[in-house]
Amino acid sequence: MKPSPLTRYLREGSLPHFFCPGCGAAQVLNYFLRAADEVKLDFDRLVGIGGVGCTARIPVYLKADCLHGVHGRTLPWATGIKLHNPDLKVVIFSGDGDAAAIGGNHLIQAARRNLDVVMIVVNNLNYGMTGGQVAPTTPEGMNTMTTPYGNVEPRFDLCELAITAGATFVSRWSTFRSRQGIRAIKKALGHKGFSLVEFVAQCPTNFGRRALGTGDPAKNVQWIEERSVTIEQAKALTPEEFAGRFVLGDFLETQRAVFAGSSTLDRGGDA
Amino acid sequence: MLGNVAVVEGALAAGCDFFAGYPITPANEISERMALRMPEVGGKFLQGEDELCSVYAVTGAALAGAKAMTATASEGFNYMLEGVGYAVAAEIPCVFVDVQRCRGENYATQADVMQLRWAASGDHEMIVLAPWSVQELFDHTVKAFNLAERFRTPVIVMSETTIALMRENLVIPEASRIEIVGRARPTVPPAEFVPFRAEKDGVPPLPRLGEGYAILHSLNPHDERGGITWDPDVFETMYERILGKITAHRDEIVETDGYFLDDAEIVLVAYGSEARPALDAIEAARRKGIRAGLLRLITVWPVPEKEIRAAAERASVLLAIEMNVGKYAGEVERVAAGRCEVVRVTKNRGEIHTSNEILAAIEEAAR
């Protein structure tokens, strides 16, 4: 079989990858490579950042500089890198645990500052790598390894959080909506300012088997798709119909000065 | 000049161009001064949302090519430990200043001397410098940057409330007289570069992010090419090199100072501000005809084993002087290894020893 031309963007010797069959994070790696290829992203000037978890492994496969291996601290790393060298392109790959739980405050502050980075969140609704524990993004009622009687906590909406905190590009798709997702990554790569692209993703191995009762990747994807609505469709729904949905779409695209440090003589910023 | 301010000026003299910190007393003057000075010298200042943001911003900036540092105080350093462990494992040159304080208050203490050495997760060596004056806060901040760059490792300046908040004369040498060390950079193009192979000294060259070397800087065990692997041989080899680059250069790193050691029967072993009353007490003891001397540890980690051992061989008793419950004393006892008696002279009530208290201990030992 002829290898995909996209493999030229992968670190030599890094395949086979470690993702489970049917994993959503692996699909997002594919989407990122397609988007990067289409916008002719310079991988020599790219810094990929991953925290800890399945999604955090995505940048490990890129033939680019990469920081990896600490849970939740992707944005602080990115802050130091971008302040010292604003010309670098920094792309963060974050799971929902990294983004919404242990690194939650970093997300709020980086969005508030409008740090010029792309943050791609693969939200697989649970802690996949550690074996399927409940996450702040797990839908209510779901059984996980640490909610054996059903999740009692309401879930986080990361896009709403990022918008409120001050992000300037916010988009959410699912792994099923590949074309829209790739388009959103391309937009984020071209955007100056804090960009969040969230993918609602299947985790057949851990979320699927425990919460949904099936480890079949297609059925997991289908479960997400059945609950997905676009921003326009969502407007027509009653609160009862809206509950438990995943709202997909480009939520926000705006411009304002990007972060250049907490103390600077240049008051103008660089919009 | 205020001790905390001397730290800032020392950092700038060393070429520091990135600072990130989170407010905490008694280290605040460092970040406040940095906020003023960094824009003046073309550097970047970040007030992080917490210590974790600060420490990772420092490691990120350092990988991007900055000479980066942070400053905090005891409990703040607790939060930063996670990042210290990363900086050790990923071999990132950066400087930490810990202005030690006590239980959330600004009591004087040296209680962090073990925390700084051991508290980060994973196996590691640590370089910790213990200045005793405002002048040394300047000098040792410069030295900390030089050691960090030389060995690709975090280096800690162990400050104390006593000297950090003290004003003393400071002589800033002309820039041409200050030795500045920069990190080794690759001399071969990316295709030929093996990122974690050390040709000499155990210290691999470090390119800046974005130079095309495509390096994976992971906390996880990694082979010479940076690839994550769980092979026990790789794990062992990696840590042997990361620890070995420090242990093999102890003599280059370790610095001590001696006073009246030639004929001393009673040798005080002290570090940081505690060496000040210790030296006063020795001079008082000498006037009383007691042959006392001082071994001042400028580097507390790695332990100046040769110097402590030599003192233990010559003296009849070592007094381990400390402003805590007695922590480093265990190291002094370990190195002395029965060559002479070791007496612990500790004070743990948020105050520095007075010279009279130490003199009393010397007189007791001389009896």
Please give the structural blueprint.
The complex is a heterodimer of chains A (about 270) and B (about 375).
Chain A: H1 24-38, E1 46-50, E2 65-68, H2 74-84, E3 89-95, H3 96-102, H4 104-113, E4 118-123, H5 158-165, E5 169-174, H6 178-190, E6 195-200, H7 204-212, H8 217-226, E7 228-230, H9 231-235, H10 239-242, E8 246-253
Parallel strand pairs in A: 1-2, 1-3, 3-4, 4-6, 5-6, 7-8
Antiparallel strand pairs in A: 5-8
Helix pairs in contact in A: 1-6, 3-4, 4-5
Chain B: H1 3-13, E1 18-21, H2 28-41, E2 44-47, H3 51-64, E3 68-72, H4 75-89, E4 94-100, H5 113-118, E5 127-129, H6 134-151, E6 154-160, H7 161-164, E7 216-218, H8 232-247, H9 250-253, E8 256-259, E9 266-271, H10 275-287, E10 292-297, E11 299-301, H11 305-314, E12 317-322, H12 329-336, E13 341-346, H13 355-366
Task: Describe what you observe in this structure.
The complex is a heterodimer of chains A (271) and B (367). Chain A has an 8-stranded mixed beta sheet with strand order 2-1-3-4-6-5-8-7, sandwiched between helices. Chain A is α/β, with parallel strands linked by helices. In chain A, helix 6 links the parallel strand 5 and strand 6. Chain A has one domain: 3-Layer(aba) Sandwich (Rossmann fold), CATH 3.40.50.970. Chain B is an alpha/beta fold and 367 residues long. Chain B folds into 2 domains: 175 residues, Thiamin diphosphate (ThDP)-binding fold, Pyr/PP domains (Rossmann fold, 3-Layer(aba) Sandwich), CATH 3.40.50; 110 residues, Rossmann fold (3-Layer(aba) Sandwich), CATH 3.40.50.920. In chain B, 40% of the residues lie in helices and 17% in strands. Chain B is built from 13 helices and 13 strands. In chain B, the strands form 2 sheets. Chain B has a 7-stranded mixed beta sheet, sandwiched between helices. A 5-stranded mixed beta sheet of chain B has the order 8-10-9-12-13, sandwiched between helices. In chain B, strand 12, helix 12 and strand 13 form a beta-alpha-beta unit. The model of chain B has no long low-confidence stretch (mean pLDDT 97). The chains are: A alpha/beta (271), B alpha/beta (367). Chains A and B meet through strand 2, helix 2 and helix 4 of A and helix 2, strand 2, helix 3, helix 4 and strand 7 of B.
